[in-house]
Amino acid sequence: MAKLSQDRKIGTRHPRENILSAGNLTALNSEIFLDCDGCASFSLDLRGTFNLTVEVTGTLDGVNWSPPIPVRPVGQAAVRYVAGVTGTVSGVWQGSCAGFDRLRIRVSAYTSGTCVATAVASTAPLDLSLLPTITTDIGTTLGAVGAATTLTLAAPGAGLRHYLTYVAIARFATALMTAGATPVAITTTNLPGSLAFSFPANAAPQGDLYPLREDFAYPLASSAQNTATTIVCPATPLAIWRITAGFYVAP
User: Fold this and answer.
1) Distance between CA 47 and CA 24 in Å, rounded?
2) With 50 as the cut, is the pLDDT of residue 1 above it?
3) Do 112 and 16 fall into the same domain?
4) Which of 144, 162, 151 has the alpha carbon at shortest distance from 197?
5) What is the pLDDT of residues 77-126, one digit of tens each?
6) Which range (23-27, 124-128, 144-148) has the least confidence?
7) For residue range 157-206, what is the model confidence (pLDDT) as tens digits?
8) Are 160 and 250 in contact (CB under 8 A)?
9) Phi, psi of 133, rounded to the nearest 5 degrees
10) What is the pLDDT of residue 16?
11) Mean pLDDT value across the chain
12) Is 133 helix (H, G, I), strand (E, B) or coil?
């Protein structure tokens, strides 16, 4: 038996089905709306010749609108979430609308062209079961001899944060290193508990490579959304640092 739903506008009950909205986006702040009461996910199709940015926001009361709702591309080389669809490429994006009464698809930056936008809301939730098991992005940096080295993962966009799947740090000795009395501290920013790592301050011989790798069985979420995450190795005489981090971007 089909599930019945109360239409809040006219008071009738009817079987649930996908809800569709479409229109042309042709200027800054041009927009279409999509009712999504009771729906869990939405798809957004953008077609035409255009150069602009489209953002999706949601409302509960019809007056106040959320920050941009992150969306993921379907069938494209890139798989990461984005806060807004920017550029000239047609395609399909998906996101979650659970809890919102209505969506607004609006042009937040405009250069040229006409974008034909089609949006569909569905009761089916997005399948995100594999998301914590994948690494879609890798950041890496190589320092200079004796120099402090910082790996910076750039702010991912409104409503998004980094999820680290692993961190790998290697120290290479360019000459015989002098032993120290305290370990070398590797610090971070925008990670829970100000995550830090300790390296030995040993008398490493020339050519020695000391690796450290931390794999997270459950990805480590950055502390704040839309904020850069950093891993910092201090200046260490005769040492070259290599820092690598695997991560993905999600709400």
Assistant:
1) 10
2) no
3) yes
4) 151
5) 667 788 889 889 899 999 999 989 999 999 999 999 999 999 999 988 88
6) 124-128
7) 888 999 999 999 999 999 999 999 999 999 999 999 999 999 999 999 99
8) yes
9) -100, 0
10) 63
11) 90
12) helix
| Cβ neighbours of 97 (radius 10 Å) | 24
Task: State how far the Cα of 235 lies from the Cα of 247, in Å rounded to an integer.
Answer: 25
**Residue located via tokens 């799947």:** 165
CA 188, 136, 190: angle at the middle one, nearest 5?
20
Mark whether 167 and 96 lie in a shared domain: no
Model pTM? 0.79
In 36-100, DSSP assigns E strands to 41-59, 72-74, 85-87, 91-96
Nearby residues of 93 by Cβ (< 8 Å), 6 or more positions away: 43, 44, 46, 71, 72, 73, 74, 82, 85
Spatial contact of 148 and 189, defined as CB atoms under 8 Å apart: no
Extract the tokens encoding 222: 């950055």
Query: Given a cut of 80, is residue 130 above it in pLDDT?
Result: no
Specify the long-range contacts of residues 72-78, CB closer than 8 Å, at least 24 apart: 74/43
CATH number of the domain residue 213 falls in: 2.60.120
Pair of tokens at residue 10: 């006219």
Q: Which domain holds residue 89?
A: 4-122
End-of-domain residue from the set 69, 95, 122: 122
C-alpha span between 231 and 196 (Å, rounded): 9
Taking Cα atoms as reference points, which of 227, 230, 226, 167 lies closest to residue 194? 230
Does 137 share its domain with 245?
yes
